[in-house]
Design goal:
Blueprint lengths: L1 H15 L1 E3 L5 E2 L5 E2 L1 E3 L2 H4 L2 H15 L6 E5 L4 H13 L5 E5 L12 E2 L7 E9 L3 H12 L3 E10 L4 H6 L5 E6 H11 L1
Parallel strand pairs: 5-6, 5-8, 8-9, 9-10
Antiparallel strand pairs: 1-4, 2-3, 6-7
Helix pairs in contact: 1-3, 1-7, 3-4
Length: about 190
């Protein structure tokens, strides 16, 4: 079942979220131009994508039995929520949390939304890793709030050094889908 879901997710990502051009035409956050465009939101916000991502992310973290799963808003949010939902269905509940981009200036000034006390063991997730910058920022903020980050998992690894950078902050880093797998699927279709 896991492999079938994985193959279906790759096909869905290629349909809704991944583009490739022979000339580098896509501008990255860094300002650099790229051959590849990855926007996971259309996939993870679709009903089938949410189902697949929730179950596959749960499988990627279930062995740790963490108390929480989340990352930087907004990329990680739908993935964390889908994972929390799947975890309840599987009888191994994991709470979702969301890390703000800016600390709120009213109420209790915290980086994190979610019901996780300091000392909770968590997995930090992200939708895409290029340099790994947003995942690293999420790891640092989770630790500032007293959470114990045991693993980082990204939905799509662009294979541009992001996972290696993240590994300097959390040794246990995984990707559910690689750019290579997406390219392989595209080439099979043409």
């Amino acid at each position: 079942m896991h492999q079938e879901m994985h193959r279906e997710l790759i096909a869905l990502l290629c349909q809704k979220s991944f583009k490739y051009t022979a000339e580098p035409t896509f501008k990255l956050v860094s300002g650099r131009m790229s051959h590849y465009y990855v926007n996971c939101k259309p996939t993870v916000l679709s009903p089938r994508g949410m189902y697949l991502v929730g179950h596959l992310m749960f499988e990627a973290i279930a062995d740790l039995r963490p108390q929480g799963v989340g990352g930087l808003t907004f990329g990680a949010d739908p993935i964390a929520m889908a994972t929390a939902f799947a975890s309840e269905l599987k009888g191994q509940p994991i709470s979702a949390f969301s890390i703000r981009k800016a600390k709120k200036d009213h109420g209790i000034a915290r980086w994190i939304e979610g019901d996780l006390p300091a000392g909770s063991r968590v997995v930090v997730i992200d939708d895409v890793a290029t340099t790994g910058g947003s995942t690293i920022q999420a790891i640092e903020r989770a630790r500032e709030e007293g959470l114990i980050v045991e693993r980082a998992v990204v939905l799509v690894d662009r294979q541009e050094g992001g996972l290696e950078n993240i590994r300097q902050h959390v040794p246990d880093v995984r990707a559910i889908v690689t750019r290579e797998a997406l390219m392989h699927h595209l080439q099979l279709k043409t």
